[in-house]
Amino acid sequence: MKKSSLIGHTVEAYDLILRDKHPADSVLDTFFRSHKYLGSHDRRFVAETVYGMLRYKRRLEWLLQGTSSEASASEDQRRSLLVCLLYLVVYCREEIAKLLEQCEPDPEEKKLLPVVLAEAKARNERFEAASDGGLDKVTRLAIKLSFPNWMIERWLEEYGEEETCAMCSALNTQAPLTLRVNLLKTDVEGCRRALEQEKLKTEATKFSPVGLTAHRRMNIFGLETFQKGFFEVQDEGSQILSLLVDPKPTSKVVDACAGGGGKSLALAVLMKNRGSIYALDTNSYRLDGLRKRIKRSGVDTIRIRAVEADHLPDDLVGTADNVLVDAPCSGLGTIRRNPGTKWTVTPETVAELHVKQLGILTHYARCVKVNGRLVYATCTTMKDENEGVVEKFLVDHPQFELLVPASILKRYQLEALGQEKYFRLKPHVHNTDGFFAAVMRRKE
Prior knowledge:
Blueprint: H1 3-19, H2 24-33, H3 40-55, H4 57-64, H5 76-90, H6 96-103, H7 107-128, H8 137-145, H9 149-159, H10 161-171, E1 178-181, H11 188-197, E2 202-204, E3 211-214, H12 224-227, E4 231-233, H13 236-245, E5 252-255, H14 262-270, E6 276-281, H15 284-297, E7 302-306, E8 320-326, H16 347-365, E9 368-378, H17 387-396, E10 400-403, H18 406-409, E11 423-425, H19 427-430, E12 435-442
Parallel strand pairs: 5-6, 5-8, 6-7, 8-9
Antiparallel strand pairs: 1-3, 1-4, 2-3, 9-12, 10-12, 11-12
Helix pairs in contact: 1-3, 1-5, 3-5, 4-5, 5-7, 8-9, 9-10, 13-14, 16-17
């Protein structure tokens, strides 16, 4: 497909994502299904360019401020085209003249675009040289790293400048494609060999004992190994979180916010397809996908239940050995996968989630029996959603006490990941999504 057409499709997809409330990957998937004529190389260009535009949206839009585009690019589509072209120039190192020649602009744009892109590129060079002054520290970092000011300000307070910069830089990269091997069907080496026969090379993950990292991205859901249930797609951090729950094969486990059921499936494997797992969620649609995954994986110990937000089934109150509350959160630890999250989460979102998370944790803590364990987890890096929730819960519920994660992870030779009182995984340190977890025990 011609470059001009590819850019047109990219701008169309980008605008759809900005208008839609769903995650970028979901919107792109729908977009590609309605544009089936796009080949694999075309889809790759559109997807990678769209994700790049989302990652660097703040900086790209700032670079365009004050250029000749201000008087002529008020239309959203025109603005998105400029963001797209500027991304290709600044981050993909494409030459302006060659790019515009491939784009075949109309006569009006043919005069404007070279000027606008040249002005923005020059401004970027001044910014890199720290000569485009007049910016306070937070704003300069927010533009440099392409994040909202409020996020940078919050992280500077919580983590300091060095770690904030490292974390944001890591969140601006593409996440690896990580698989969790289903030990009910095969072993890690057997899965690796089977995937290699299907032309996908993988290697063992650094931390998870049941993980494989793919050397390239592809549509793995069409692979025979996937259809046989040899693996599930799951971030390495999420795999380790399941280890932290640490159920025995005979345990009764409640996965309180099961969603698509990835952790329920991982827990079933840890339990050797014994015991019982209750996968609960208030959204029955999300649970529908789990039913298909259960059948493919060969698991028969997961009980699916759609529940009301304010109701607990009587047979679960005070009876569970392990309860996992993987709470709804802002998802800021998963920005590598869904960079559009940067532009939808607000301080008000975090404040509202804190209240909701505390309510959910309090609600499902009632399922834990004496000496049972409660694990609260999120995939966010905001302390208000993490220890802010747990510490308030512990004050209100003195019958629960914190356990040091290392005491559990040592059986998997992962105690180095859990030396502090809370469990954390960081994109810039562990190359996983950002995860937080607290392990608690209900005392006598």
